[in-house]
Write a structure and sequence with these properties.
Layout lengths: L2 H21 L3 H9 L5 H22 L6 H24 L2 H20 L9 H18 L3 H10 L4 H25 L5 H24 L5 H25 L1
């Protein structure tokens, strides 16, 4: 790796890890496009999944006391059912069409959220449904976060509970993906080099996020989540248009 590749990868991982630690999601959203500037996109995906696995496991463990275990279980059940169907969905719709649909859902959610809509209590149907949609999207377009984020955000969960619940769901999903990458031989020398230069910025970013998260009050955290969802929508839209 040359100096440019090392610097770009390190900065991307630092930002992605800090964002995940602060908000609870967004690692791949930031890491994959930036790392793809200096490395093959498929290697960037493997790197993001691997590092996100580490950070989500740490986050899920550190904040386990705040986890909504019932919601997490429902979402994981839904994701397990939805993941195989994502491949079937691709037989009917293109990944580009699904990306446009996801942008529309995110935009609609942002509108109703700004207007004050919220769930007063947990909803089994919504949580299983969010997990199902997450599983479908994960195998269809490699984007599993938005349905889970929207479902938990609508309940106005406290920030620690929001992060911890997302973390355990993401950790399981990332563990499965990492295992599949390992079996298929995706951890080649180039990927391992990327992982090697990412360890220090990953740790630094995560620790920075643990400091930054305390600077946001309840409404500040909610605005941060909505803002990151908006960025997700924009990135997805750009990918759909360019694809």
């Amino acid at each position: 790796m040359d100096a440019t590749e090392i610097v770009v990868t390190a900065v991307a991982v630092l930002l992605a890890s800090c964002t995940l630690s602060t908000v609870g999601f967004g690692f791949a959203l930031l890491a994959v496009p930036l790392v793809s500037l200096v490395a093959p996109a498929e290697d960037a995906v493997v790197l993001a999944v691997t590092l996100a696995l580490v950070t989500t496991v740490v986050q899920a463990t550190h904040e386990r006391a705040h986890r909504d275990g019932t919601a997490a279980t429902r979402m994981l059940v839904g994701a397990a059912v939805g993941a195989p169907l994502g491949l079937a969905v691709l037989a009917v719709f293109t990944s580009r069409q699904l990306q446009f649909a996801l942008v529309g859902v995110i935009a609609a959610f942002l509108v109703v959220s700004v207007r004050g809509w919220r769930l007063q209590h947990d909803s089994p149907a919504i949580e299983v449904g969010a997990g199902f949609a997450s599983g479908v999207l994960n195998t269809a377009v490699a984007t599993n976060g938005p349905p889970l984020v929207m479902a938990l955000h609508a309940r106005h969960l406290p920030a620690p509970s929001f992060r911890s619940t997302l973390a355990i769901v993401f950790a399981v999903s990332n563990a499965i993906a990492a295992a599949l990458f390992a079996v298929s031989g995706r951890y080649d020398r180039e990927v391992l080099e990327l992982v090697g230069v990412s360890v220090v910025p990953m740790v630094a970013g995560y620790l920075a996020g643990t400091v930054l998260r305390h600077r946001f009050g309840v409404e500040g955290f909610r605005r941060l989540v909505l803002g990151l969802l908006g960025v997700t929508g924009v990135v997805t839209l750009v990918a759909a248009i360019s694809g």
